[in-house]
Amino acid sequence: MGFKTGKRKILLGITGASGMFFVKAFLETMRSASVELHAVISVSGQDVLQTELEITPSALPVITKWYDIDDFNAAPSSGSSDYHAMVILPCTMGTLAAIAGGLSMNLIHRAADVTLKERRKLVLSVRETPFNRTHLQNMLAVNDAGGIICPVMPSFYLKPATLEEAALSYAWRLADQLDIEIHDRKRWKDTNG
Fold first, then answer.
1. Is 92 annotated to bind ligand?
2. Which InterPro entries does the entry mention (predicted)?
């Protein structure tokens, strides 16, 4: 990318889909990574965070800077910002649709659009089931624009014994997509001899 700093700068968008447990696992994983993490959360994201984890955004670990959802003057609104990548976790179908349609109705949408236009990594952790045809078409549109669709689906070949371990396996996959090295990350043959 040609950025001057060695530390990766990642933008996290948090929307109002279920799955805040995975946000927490991802952020805990980032503790050991050499990243600077900025974030923006939607109003419904705050509601779901409170409902599922009974916390406010300020209680989430490792985030060094928060942006307001309606602040279109914030750094992530501009292609001159120096983010290496953006991940939206969890990503609602409404956010997916806005990104697929090129709409910028809030800072998460605008930052995703900027990420795509600058040819940086955009990872959408979509969270819905089942998918309808519109969801699938929107995923294909974002994929065709250069985004990565990474549904919130933990792997089970590492034999997770708890929900926390399953969420950790998904956090590792996200880190892989963002080109972030995680020191204790386990892989396929690590437990199968």
1. yes
2. Flavoprotein, UbiX-like
